[in-house]
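Please fill in the sequence for the structure shown.

STRUCTURE ENCODING:
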């Protein structure tokens, strides 16, 4: 009887372990309103499927931390610049993400190279002369940079 009870307890614990969602351990200090995670994301791909994957990843990060515990910035440069142009096929997604205070920044050097100006980008998207320098400076200021 004790053996059967032990097996049932072990099975129950195994079931609980498998049915409980895993949560990432938060590094100290834990993110909060006064100390949000700072994450800058590189977007330098033109493929719409890849761009949507990057946008999905950013929204997953936003959801995991919560709006008050994370600041997200996406820097579009090189081939990724098309995603922030006014005629972009992902324009609606970007406009929606802007409503969540997710920052988008266009690279001025890339815009210059394709003969576009600030007026050609989605309303609400920021601008910097050099996208990579924006990423570097944010990293040096405590932001984590990722390229999903």
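FILLED IN BY: designer on duty
SEQUENCE:
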């Amino acid at each position: 009887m004790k053996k059967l009870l032990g097996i049932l307890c072990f099975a129950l614990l195994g079931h609980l372990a498998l049915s409980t969602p895993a949560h990432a351990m938060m590094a100290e200090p834990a993110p909060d309103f006064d100390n949000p995670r700072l994450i800058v994301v590189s977007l330098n791909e033109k493929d719409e499927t890849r761009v949507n994957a990057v946008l999905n990843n950013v929204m997953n990060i936003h959801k995991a931390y919560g709006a008050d515990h994370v600041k997200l910035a996406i820097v579009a440069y090189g081939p990724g610049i098309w995603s922030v142009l006014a005629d972009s096929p992902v324009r609606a997604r970007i406009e929606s993400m802007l409503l969540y205070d997710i920052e988008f920044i266009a690279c001025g050097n890339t815009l210059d190279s394709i003969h576009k100006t600030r007026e050609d980008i989605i309303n609400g998207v920021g601008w910097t002369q050099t996208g990579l320098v924006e990423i570097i400076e944010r990293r040096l200021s405590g932001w984590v940079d990722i390229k999903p």
